[in-house]
Amino acid sequence: MTDNKRIVLAYSGGLDTSVAIPYLKDRTGKDVVAVSLDVGQGGESLETIKNRALACGAVEAYVVDARDEFADEYCMMALKANAMYEGVYPLVSAISRPLISKHLVRAAHQFGADTISHGCTGKGNDQVRFEVSIASIDPTLKAISPIRDLALTRDVEIAFAKEHKLPITQTEKSPYSIDQNVWGRAIETGFLEDPWNGPTKDCYSYTDDPAFPPVEDEVIIEFKQGIPVKIDGRDVTPLQAIEEMNRRAGAQGIGRIDLIEDRLVGIKSRELYEAPGAVALIAAHQELENCCLEREQHRIKRDIDKRWAELVYDAQWFSPAVRSLNAFIEETQQYVSGEIRMTLHGGRAVVTGRRSDSSLYDYKLATYDSGDSFDSKSSNGFIDIYGLPSRVAAARDVRFGNGIEVPDNAVE
């Protein structure tokens, strides 16, 4: 442990955060601890990233393979909540930030830091997600952003890297800003900032073109209390379920999203997303809930799901409100167990079959054939009582001359 003279840096291994290590040291006089998490984003190994951080001047490098933790505790909660911001976006970045923040705080405690640094700009959502999450876990820690707070622009970064002979290789900068993990991929900036411009094929990586799909793919997903546990009869962990559905749904072009999005900071932003596994799994989970949730419980949960997605998007993962919603969502999953059969093809994941021992679907009540156990005579009294308030109100309207006019369609 040191005497609280360190900064913990969320480190990706790229130019921005590699330059930030010596830059922060020069500007603040504090040693830097680099923190890197694998949440399924692919690319370089954690060992490579760790060695680069140390070579750039970090005094410690904290690296974690967090893929299972991310899938188990964050993606599965989003799945149980059918989380789709603005009805379409499955919270690719928003659910990874609380996990990264938790490890940043853990590293700060472990290595004696009093400040946490991240690489966000002043225009995005992630600056809020990191700093609110950090403050929710340990409000004594300070948070800074070199790009936002210390004028660390790209030309300054490149000149600084050359001057300090940092061991990083400059490649041509991508025209897009990309954030990805096992739950999906977010693509923005560049020519996409003009909302009239259509996406080009180089925007996509997780999905193939849905206009030219392979033969349709039938999959059976088994859930236990809201979590996928088998695919086509094979046991899977949450991470394995997501990875397999990314591969299979991605091959069919499922999960491409093009959205004008309302950001937390108050601006509208054009965003592309790829989330093949998330989109397919949420569609299957929602259909199983259709079978297994009681009507009023289901209606409330649909409202809760929408609010949960908004709150988590808005940096409230650790808030009392989300904790309370989580308790409701978890209780609803008690009977969400069974199998969903889906056909994946040409950009669509279509449910074709459902079965569950805990389903509330009762064939004898639903059928119109012989064996029907529904007592239709009961409907007479039900309609009479159910319609009573409307009849009483209608009679009052007639007394005051406000009755509903019925058009005269008689032919002369």
From TrEMBL:
Instruction: Say yes or no: keyword Amino-acid biosynthesis present.
Output: yes
Highest taxon of the lineage: Bacteria
Q: Which residues bind L-citrulline?
A: Y89, N125, R129, S177, E261, Y273
EC annotation from Swiss-Prot or TrEMBL: 6.3.4.5
CDD domains, alphabetically? ASS (cd01999)
Q: What class of enzyme is it?
A: ligase
Q: Name one Pfam family in it.
A: Arginosuc_synth
This protein's GO cellular component annotations are:
cytoplasm
Arginosuccinate synthase-like N-terminal domain span: 6-167
Q: Which UniProt keywords apply?
A: Amino-acid biosynthesis, Arginine biosynthesis, ATP-binding, Cytoplasm, Ligase, Nucleotide-binding
PROSITE patterns, A to Z: ARGININOSUCCIN_SYN_1, ARGININOSUCCIN_SYN_2
In this chain, ATP is annotated as bound at A10, Y11, S12, G13, G14, L15, D16, T17, S18, G119
Q: Any idea where the Arginosuccinate synthase C-terminal domain is?
A: 176-392
Q: Where is this protein primarily located?
A: cytoplasm
Q: Which GO terms describe its molecular function?
A: argininosuccinate synthase activity; ATP binding
Which pathway does it operate in? Answer: Amino-acid biosynthesis; L-arginine biosynthesis; L-arginine from L-ornithine and carbamoyl phosphate: step 2/3
Q: Which chemical reaction does it catalyze?
A: L-citrulline + L-aspartate + ATP = 2-(N(omega)-L-arginino)succinate + AMP + diphosphate + H(+)
Q: Where in the cell is it found?
A: Cytoplasm
Gene3D superfamilies linked to this entry: Argininosuccinate synthetase, chain A, domain 2, HUPs, Single helix bin
- Any Gene Ontology biological process: argininosuccinate metabolic process
Q: Which residues bind L-aspartate?
A: T121, N125, D126
Q: How does it assemble?
A: Homotetramer.
Q: What NCBIfam families does this protein's entry cite?
A: argG (TIGR00032), PRK00509.1 (NF001770)
Name the protein family. Belongs to the argininosuccinate synthase family. Type 1 subfamily.
Name used for this protein in its record? Argininosuccinate synthase
